[in-house]
Amino acid sequence: MEVKRDILWRVYLCFIGIVVFSVIILMRAVYIQQIQGTHWINEAKKDQQKFVEIDAERGTIYSEDGSMLSTSIPFFNIYIDFMAEGLREKNGKRFRDNVDSLSSSLADYFKDRSSSEYKQLLQQGYRRKDRYFLFKKNLSFRQYKELRTMPLIRQGRDKSGFIPEVKDKRLNPFGLLANRTIGLSREYIDSEGKMKNTNVGLEKTYDTVLKGEIGKRLMRKVAAGVFVPVDGSEIEPQNGKDIITTLDVNIQDIAETALYKTLATNECEYGTCLVMEVKTGKIKAIANLGRRPDGSYFEDMNYAIRASEPGSTFKLATMLALLEDKYIALNHRVNLEGGTWQVNGRTVYDSENHGYDVSIKEAFQMSSNVGMAKLVMAYYSKKPTQFVDHLKKMRFNEYSGIDLLGETTPIVKTPKSKTWSATSLPWMSFGYEVLVSPLQTLMLYNAIANDGKMMKPYLVNAIKENGLVVKENQPEVLEQAVCSEQTLRLLQECLKAVCNEPHGTGFSLFKGAPYSVAGKTGTSLMANGNRGYADHIYQSSFAGYFPADNPQYSCIVVVKNKPFAPVYYGAKIAGPVFKELADKLYALNADKDRKAPQSIPVKKDSSYYLYAGAAEDMQQVMNTLQWKYRDSVGAHEWTRLYAANYEPVLNGQPVSKKNMPDVRGMGLKDALFLLENMQAKVIVRGRGKVKTQSVTPGASFMKNQPVIIELN
């Protein structure tokens, strides 16, 4: 009996243990499923599928006349999913029926393999059941279009298994023309070993505008390390906006050609040439060339916005200060001391002996350092701050404000500066001990040409999205008057005399020219690191405007010469570049008495279109027309239709009652419905689709706020 009881106790104990163990397992299963279920499902999905980024199509950079300066060209990588249902159904009948004709078409078009080799390649992939077989790389759009017409592939992705992957490559159609200003794309490998690009110039300054918004694509794991895209799971990228620059391709080409000719002939280190439209401040050309070790030239740096000692072109600022303070008149006399003058233990030298007693106008014409230094010391030695204040009004101590990154900091000394000395003031009078960029110097010359009004230089006219202007830059006045009317006329007279009177350093350069020029030459000695001035490296420059009586363009040329160059004066090195530019623009009727050149509208690209409206209506229209499109509407009530990689895309447009919606591209009915439901006061002008709206999309919005919409 006791044995039986002992056995039963053991059985009961085992049973209870099994029950408890089962309950624990059950509770654990419930906990994992109900409490941790979401976490583990997400972990499983991470392993089986992932989102990859889809690069947006980068915007195009145009010249003012509509020529493409930088654009993105699509290239295609073609993959094949040999496990696609369309290829495998009916035991692979579709594949067998089409493989011969497809192989023959591929061989005839690409001519890189025979028909039998293509057939062998396709059959091999089919037998291996590859899910993401790389078939072709870097096909052009023309090649891709042709590929889509071939047997089997033309039946569509689901039946053929062919998967296109689009990659964009940046292309500058005009080659090196304004390459540095537009922006070079430099490849490098990051810390993770991935190839990356870095940009400069406009490509960098406007990168956030050009690059658009990245999209996403869901990829499903089909084998170890192999992922294929999931249909219908793409979030379409928002393409980048286009930039319309102020550059003129013809003027840019003339400037670069003339600059290159001078640099190559004289083996100069580097040079820059800037052309500005007088009335607006638009930069029409900006050429930069630097010498490579092999003797060739390349747009390696933007020398136009790098500060250096300007030399004698700075004497215009000195004359402005003296005349504005009414210390001098042009017919006053100054003793040039035979070309050398001692001041506070240092010697000021002229480039040559200009004699002794001359008028101040003649001293400026001959570019006398002694004359400028003596005048400044005579009137400002006891009040140097007064002279410096004039330079500040001319904005030499500030950035130019041009829409380019990388502008170096200008330096204008004051008596409080640590490096200020007893000779700082006389040396500043002829362009030493100050650091300003060629662009800053040009701004002053342009102001004199523009009746004293200093304009802000700019490179971008407008930003466009799908052909619609989203931002437009207008000429901006920085200083309404850099000097009085009387001073302005005297300075204009001095600049004309440099190029049109026998004493002028630019007289021989422009003698006999059919147009008039106002300008100033400059030659400055440059330090060469620790070697100082021992290598006799000179910077040659010429700044001015033309035609002198009706200025259309201002221009500056700055060139750094090689050590011990036999020719280095501004009139001999920089002057010929300026003259060639002026000659050719004159030949293009640049000197005719006319208004400032008007912007030519950019030619419309027929591959771009934009429609917007209610998502349900847009989808119904597309389906009725049997127009294949990518649907990225999601749960949004409103949508926009545009082209992405030459295919129509419907993309959802979020709408918030607190922010102004984007109604551009909508018909009047949809725009009114959306805005009036938000209790906006709508004012309509024109007919057609909405072209512009008075309140910026995304801006804060209040009830009863007036909104003007213009139709096209």
Which helices and strands appear, and what pairs or packs with what?
Blueprint: H1 2-35, H2 37-48, E1 49-54, E2 61-62, E3 68-80, H3 85-110, H4 115-128, E4 133-139, H5 141-147, H6 157-160, E5 162-171, H7 179-182, E6 185-189, E7 195-199, H8 201-205, H9 207-211, E8 215-223, E9 226-229, E10 242-245, H10 249-266, E11 270-277, E12 283-291, E13 297-298, H11 315-324, E14 333-335, E15 340-343, E16 346-349, E17 357-359, H12 360-365, H13 369-380, H14 384-393, E18 411-412, H15 424-429, E19 434-435, H16 438-449, E20 454-455, E21 460-465, E22 468-472, E23 477-479, H17 485-500, H18 507-510, E24 518-526, E25 537-546, E26 553-560, H19 570-587, E27 610-614, H20 615-624, E28 630-632, E29 638-644, E30 647-653, H21 668-677, E31 681-685, E32 690-693, E33 706-711
Structure notes:
- The chain is an alpha+beta fold and 712 residues long.
- Among the domains are: 2-35; 309-558, Beta-lactamase, CATH 3.40.710.10; 610-711, no CATH class.
- The chain contains 21 helices and 33 strands.
- Strands 2, 3, 4, 5, 10, 21 and 22 form a 7-stranded mixed beta sheet that branches. The chain has a 6-stranded antiparallel beta sheet with strand order 13-12-11-26-25-24, with helices on both faces. It has a 4-stranded mixed beta sheet with strand order 27-29-30-28.
- Strand 6 (185-189) and strand 7 (195-199) form a beta hairpin.
- Helix 3 packs antiparallel against helix 4 and helix 11 runs antiparallel to helix 17 (485-500).
- The longest helix is centred in the first third of the chain and has 34 residues, at 2-35.
- The N and C termini lie far apart (105 Å).
